Amino acid sequence: MFQADLITSGDTVTIQMSGDLDALSAPSFHEILQQVATRSPKKLCLAMHGLSYISSAGVRGLVFARQKMGDDMEVVVEGANENVAETIRMTGLQHAITIRESFSA
Amino acid sequence: MFQADLITSGDTVTIQMSGDLDALSAPSFHEILQQVATRSPKKLCLAMHGLSYISSAGVRGLVFARQKMGDDMEVVVEGANENVAETIRMTGLQHAITIRESFSA
Amino acid sequence: MPATVASLVAVAEFVGGAVAVAGLGDKDAYRLRLAVDELITNVITHGYPPASAGEIELHSSVSDGWVLFLIVDFGTEFDPTSGHRPIPVVDPDDLPVGGFGLSLARMSADRLIYERVGELNRTIVVVRRSGRDLVAHDDRRPPWMS
Amino acid sequence: MPATVASLVAVAEFVGGAVAVAGLGDKDAYRLRLAVDELITNVITHGYPPASAGEIELHSSVSDGWVLFLIVDFGTEFDPTSGHRPIPVVDPDDLPVGGFGLSLARMSADRLIYERVGELNRTIVVVRRSGRDLVAHDDRRPPWMS
Ligand SMILES: Nc1ncnc2c1ncn2[C@@H]1O[C@H](COP(=O)(O)OP(=O)(O)O)[C@@H](O)[C@H]1O
Ligand SMILES: Nc1ncnc2c1ncn2[C@@H]1O[C@H](COP(=O)(O)OP(=O)(O)O)[C@@H](O)[C@H]1O
């Protein structure tokens, strides 16, 4: 199961993601991104604290987000767990998107 | 996971069972039965509403209950789901233990 | 998988996943789990010396409507398909204390195949989707009963 | 299992059960799921014609510390192990829209084997327990990268 909640605050749109983002759930993530793109926010924050899994179908959504939002717009991934962050890094996408990780001891 | 809760009311002892009763959990079920046997109740009610699985290791516990409790004592199984009840019936144990099933439409 | 009863939790999970892939209903899922659980429990409790850390290999093949499990162990040679093992007639005054496991496994599985290969026991359990929701007891009668 | 994306939920469950039986840690569980998921997703989306109801068979072999999945499909002949498929260098101004799936599968699996047998694609994925908790990216470099 994948769930996404939209939070708009000023010029920033945050998508709180949870569950599994695979080829089954990617289309609905895509739809949400399309909706967000029409609002032309300054910053898109993908809050992945609750996301337990991402596959290439989900990564494709991130690429889409980066492309759809204008060049002057920031796309930030935050709260991704180690596995999810590693998967995104494996695709080389950290060169186009900011990935903010938190570690606690 | 298997859980058992003991409820004593007059001469009746009820064991509310839930989870899976297999070879892993059977020893603790056995222990509870041993404890109950020392109280010499008139009636032992095994409330299986929450029990999702029983294997022969669990059935062996029922046999033990029937043997440990005196001849004048009633052992009743109630609330077992169709699969659990069928498994107990497959062992022929319904000849020694009362199985009360409820059906709703 | 180590041959200890603690492994039965993982076995149940694995069977559950296979059932989901095969699209089996609740009853079929239950009898598959029962057959696999009983056979593995026997390997753990009878096949290996107590407190030895034997190993059990599990193989599962799944397609739409059926699941096959192959259980491989290195324990005592034992053929769960051989011998007449009718359910002992239960006399309230003289209940059997065991011997239900193999009967339940044989009644629950649609096929049960055993072979000894070298030092290995290879036991195969197959469950297919049944037409009806609840398979009547008689229809699951193992060959040796008829 | 029908070749539709809805089946991916059951696949995840099946992989999870195999992981439990094998006693794999969190990282290894993740990369096994990723490899199997990507390959099956490709069969569903590229191997069978859209909206056709193709069938995928799944076989899993598990012992302590390793899991093997064999994916059998009857779709287009396709070898996921062949060809150089480096991760496309990501240029922020010119992002690739796809092509991550095979790279992720190849980096995640410890072994990836393919054979065409008659009308069948047989793809094998193996993941073994890693010594460390997190396998460094470089250590998972597929043979074609070195
Ligand atoms: N894998 C096995 N290896 C050796 N002996 C076995 C094995 N499985 C079953 N047996 C023998 O068959 C008997 C009957 O098994 P079963 O019907 O499961 O009942 P139980 O385990 O309660 O004795 C066991 O008591 C044991 O002697
Ligand atoms: N099972 C398959 N059958 C046929 N073609 C495939 C299969 N798997 C992958 N391909 C081909 O390889 C390409 C790359 O696959 P992949 O790296 O997973 O990226 P994507 O699926 O995003 O295109 C696909 O676009 C497709 O042309």
Helical residue percent of chain C?
25-40%
Run of helices and strands of chain A: EEHEHEHE
Q: How large a portion of the residues of chain A is in β-strands, by DSSP E?
A: 35-45%
> What's the name of the CATH homologous superfamily of chain C?
Histidine kinase-like ATPase, C-terminal domain
What is the fold-level CATH name, i.e. the topology of chain A? Transcription Regulator spoIIAA
Most extensive protein-chain contact, per-chain counts: A-D, 26 and 33 residues
Low-confidence sequence ranges of chain A: none
Oligomer class: heterotetramer
User: What is the averaged pLDDT score of chain C?
Assistant: 86
Which term fits the overall shape of chain C?
globular
Strand count of chain C: 4
Keywords, separated by commas or semicolons:
heterotetramer; A: 105 residues; alpha/beta; Transcription Regulator spoIIAA; five-stranded mixed β-sheet; C: 146 residues; alpha+beta; Heat Shock Protein 90; 4 strands; 31% helix; 22% strand; globular; binds adenosine-5'-diphosphate
Give an overview of the whole structure.
Chain A is α/β, with parallel strands linked by helices and 105 residues long. Chain A has one domain: STAS domain (Transcription Regulator spoIIAA). Helices cover 33% and strands 36% of the residues of chain A. Chain A is built from three helices and five strands; from the N terminus they run E-E-H-E-H-E-H-E. In chain A, strands 1-2-3-4-5 form a five-stranded mixed β-sheet. By secondary structure, chain C is an alpha+beta fold. The N and C termini of chain C lie far apart (36 Å). The relative contact order of chain C is 0.20. Chains A and D meet through helix 2 and helix 3 of A and helix 1, helix 2 and helix 3 of D. Bound molecules: adenosine-5'-diphosphate (2 copies). One adenosine-5'-diphosphate binds next to helix 2 and helix 3 of chain C.
TL;DR of this structure?
Chains C, D: This is Histidine kinase/HSP90-like ATPase domain-containing protein. Chain A is an alpha/beta fold and 105 residues long.
